[in-house]
């Protein structure tokens, strides 16, 4: 029997990787996305003419639209990725983060619960709601330690606070109403189709263009990096085989200081696209004012996911970052319009 999945946020960075994977795996996929600045249907060109793929432009905060989508598509799985995702934007304007990540998730949960309650007993048993979240909900680590599933929540940015709130809502809908949910919290993703406001694509593209490479503070903050297709594989596994009511941490075991990430990208760019006018790219590094409330270190213990469901990532940081750089070099038509718009907005000329 064909499985039917409704993916929210499927035009975004991770959502589009999930949609591409599920369509290729033979799922019937409905992608529900509002197409904010971060949503881009060009990320789905590879699969958008497949008969098992459909798109609906809608806001997860729109109850009627979600109700109609659920009732007409009749999914046996919802994978919820739609969110406002950029920490710096959440500092400048938290309102959209509360609206989409908290109120939008609440609305989607209510509609999913109503839909699930209306299914017959057999279909109810087969239904799942998978909520996709971030390791940022756990706050900041010192030099030692790892985030585990039972690490207390201590979000520090408006973004992570809004995601923490959404995680709590999902958990409550399981315990209070019995909605069959599964949750996951992942570390920093990178790879193809990443919007050029985030550290890795911004660094690649500025290095290509010989522009300054902004590093917040002294670049000492540590993130754990996971290649996006490894995350998509983990998500399919968790959605289909994770235990109900449980959360799973997903991580790449690739802790890096930001300054080291930027230097690694500079070295690859110097080797792959040397440019005499630019010279050695490390000279482009510009230490800039730190992000307020900047979390020092994130690191994940993904042992539960490995032990219970057998997941391990296929890419190391070295293989994944090389692939990513080459993807951006080969796909200028995807990023050029976005980067130009982003640069104009930063300069205040948009
Ligand atoms: P993204 O910003 O690239 O994409 C978000 C998508 O959601 C976009 O297509 C956007 O149009 C859509 N969207 C936003 N508001 C919406 C609304 N109200 N209704 C419908 N669609 C809406 O984000 P991403 O990096 O792909 O992240 C996806 C999910 O994974 C998020 O929930 C995020 O918190 C989580 N996550 C991201 C990372 C990461 O490193 N990027 C890591 C862990 C978890
Ligand atoms: O120009 C920059 N210079 C810089 O030093 C930018 C954009 C970022 N940084 C730093 C801040 C972070 O320590 O690099 C690190 C990574 O920054 P981002 O790419 O903005 O990601 P981050 O804030 O870590 O959050 C990302 O990973 C977790 C996603 O945006 C979140 O949605 C996800 O939950």
From TrEMBL:
Keyword Cell membrane applies: no
Sample GO molecular function, one term: dTDP-glucose 4,6-dehydratase activity
EC number: 4.2.1.46
NAD(P)-binding domain span: 6-324
Gene3D superfamilies: NAD(P)-binding Rossmann-like Domain, UDP-galactose 4-epimerase, domain 1
Known catalytic reactions: dTDP-alpha-D-glucose = dTDP-4-dehydro-6-deoxy-alpha-D-glucose + H2O
InterPro entries the UniProt entry points to: dTDP_Gluc_deHydtase, NAD(P)-bd_dom, NAD(P)-bd_dom_sf
Keywords: Lyase, NAD
Pfam families membership: GDP_Man_Dehyd
Cofactor: NAD(+)
Listed PANTHER family: DTDP-D-GLUCOSE 4,6-DEHYDRATASE-RELATED
Family stated for the protein in its record: Belongs to the NAD(P)-dependent epimerase/dehydratase family. dTDP-glucose dehydratase subfamily.
Name used for this protein in its record: dTDP-glucose 4,6-dehydratase
Organism: Ancylobacter oerskovii
Originating gene: rfbB
